[in-house]
Design a protein that fits this description.
Helix content is 40%, strand content 22%. The chain is α/β, with parallel strands linked by helices and 122 residues long. 35% of the residues are buried. Helix 1 packs across helix 5 (107-117) and helix 2 (34-43) packs parallel to helix 3 (60-70).
Length: 122
């Protein structure tokens, strides 16, 4: 399973990365915003993309759109630290979103959801 984590806070991103790696992901890469995420989407095939909606460069929607175009099978897991889209309407804006979590979600729970959604279909 290959996992791309798009998170502007390096401490939080590294924490999530370490938990996902512990569950046996083959490749886990941390991108801090739009430009790095686009480069990684072009470079590798991803099973799961963990995307924080509140990136420092405001590029979350663009990352979602690009991933939907380049890797339609990648499962997008949204992390949200704001009150926007808490009503579930994010699924209307990001067709490739499979789940949405608050940024306060425990890292081990987020990693378990990555493992669940990242299971490669036979």
């Amino acid at each position: 399973m290959n996992v791309l984590i798009v998170e502007s806070n390096p401490d939080l991103g590294l924490l999530w990365k370490s938990h996902v790696e512990r569950l046996g992901a083959c490749l886990v890469v941390l991108a801090d915003g739009l430009d790095e995420a686009i480069q990684e989407i072009m470079r590798h095939e991803w099973n799961v993309i963990v995307l924080n909606l509140v990136l420092h460069d405001g590029g979350a929607m663009a990352v979602s759109d690009y991933a939907s175009y380049r890797q339609p099978k990648a499962r997008l897991l949204i992390v949200n630290s704001s009150s926007f889209f808490t009503d579930g309407s994010i699924f209307n804006h990001m067709a490739n979103a499979h789940a949405s979590f608050p940024s306060s979600t425990r890292p081990e729970d987020l990693a378990a959801m990555v493992q669940h959604y990242g299971q490669v279909e036979a």
